[in-house]
User: What shape does this take?
Amino acid sequence: MAEAFNEANEEIASNEGMLTNDSEAISDAATRFANLNEAVEDLYDNYDKYEGVLKDVQKAQTKMDKALVLADEDAADFRKSLAKLVDTSEDFIDTNFIDAIDPDDLEKAAMGDEEAIGRIRDAFIDA
Assistant: This one.
């Protein structure tokens, strides 16, 4: 038992050194995690508004109509949440990406579903 305890302490000590050396990476990961949690919470709290924005963008026929939908204040908040969800700048959230989002995935992502979040991230990469 004492030997296992000593081995565990040694492993922890060696990992502490790695953690200290990678404090910037840890800080970045923590920031991304916090942004993801904030995005999920915002999607959950504002799901009805954001679902409407998503439907309006997907129904719009022309790029101009889509751009007009995204000029709305609710759409701006939606874009902010999506940017945090996919870990990018709001500037990269465009109508091509929003068109590619499955409405069911948006609802599931608002509930914290990791697979739905992954599919939304994939849609961002593919858009």
